[in-house]
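testing teh design pipeline on a random one, pls ignore if ur not involved
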């Protein structure tokens, strides 16, 4: 089994560089998917209340036979549960639904700037971290101005900022902004829904190495040095997505990958997204 490297966060805790995402995994089969992913070698589960599969995530974790202390569990506070009271209730519900005593990481799912409650929500996460309900706290889909306001008003830097990153949306400025603040970038939708699978910079590496386009893109993420969250309910693809440590992209190939950046999102713009 491949050994997944860990990244050290600014708070001293570590997280696996490759995690398993639970977004769009149907709740009915999610327990088996999670159990299979953990048995395949994943050690980070990235969930969220909004995904509606937290109970199944916990069931799969327990069924896997992997000790709880060996698995990094993430969840998120959704947009309609911002504010100190609602955020605390969200975290406590997630703890119950997953069936764990502590979350390894909890994120604010989106900043929802029109609500103007993300600082208050952040203060709630800080308090729950200090109480021991959460080990590390972070954010998701936060822009640079959102990060700076959090830090200026609370003095607390997020450990992680989970953002959309894939070949067609590489976000070098946002990744650099995270790094400058000591924040780990974690990429969601790292394969970009397969939109770059046939692009020459990806296909050429796949032909040279005998790897799949998905493996090439995941290796690209790995060499960029941030964390990332592939997702598949297919057991074979789960294993393939971890099989990226026996080849590498050359410097020239990494440069060619930059040409694929179109600034094209698969998800919403964090500066305006407010779905409840």
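output:
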């Amino acid at each position: 089994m491949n050994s997944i490297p860990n990244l050290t966060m600014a708070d001293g805790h570590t997280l696996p560089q490759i995690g398993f995402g639970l977004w769009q995994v149907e709740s009915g089969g999610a327990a088996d998917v999670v159990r299979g992913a953990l048995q395949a070698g994943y050690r980070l589960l990235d969930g969220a209340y909004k995904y509606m599969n937290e109970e199944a995530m916990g069931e799969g974790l327990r069924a896997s036979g992997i000790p709880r202390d060996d698995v990094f569990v993430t969840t998120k506070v959704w947009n309609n549960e911002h504010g100190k009271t609602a955020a605390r209730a969200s975290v406590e519900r997630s703890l119950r639904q997953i069936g764990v005593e502590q979350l390894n990481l909890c994120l604010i799912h989106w900043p929802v700037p029109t609500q103007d409650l993300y600082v208050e929500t952040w203060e709630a996460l800080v308090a729950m971290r200090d109480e021991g309900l959460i080990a590390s706290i972070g954010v998701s889909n936060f822009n640079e101005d959102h990060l700076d306001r959090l830090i200026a008003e609370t003095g607390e830097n997020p450990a992680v900022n989970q953002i959309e990153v894939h070949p067609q949306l590489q976000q070098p400025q946002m990744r650099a902004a995270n790094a400058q603040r000591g924040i780990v970038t974690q990429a969601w939708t790292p394969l970009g829904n397969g939109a770059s699978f046939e692009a020459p910079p990806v296909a050429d590496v796949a032909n040279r190495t005998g790897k799949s386009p998905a493996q090439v893109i995941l290796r690209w993420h790995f060499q960029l040095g941030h964390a990332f969250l592939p997702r598949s309910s297919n057991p074979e693809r789960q294993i393939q997505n971890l099989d990226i440590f026996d080849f590498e992209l050359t410097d020239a190939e990494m440069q060619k990958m930059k040409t694929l950046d179109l600034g094209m999102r698969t998800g919403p713009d964090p500066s305006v997204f407010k779905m409840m």
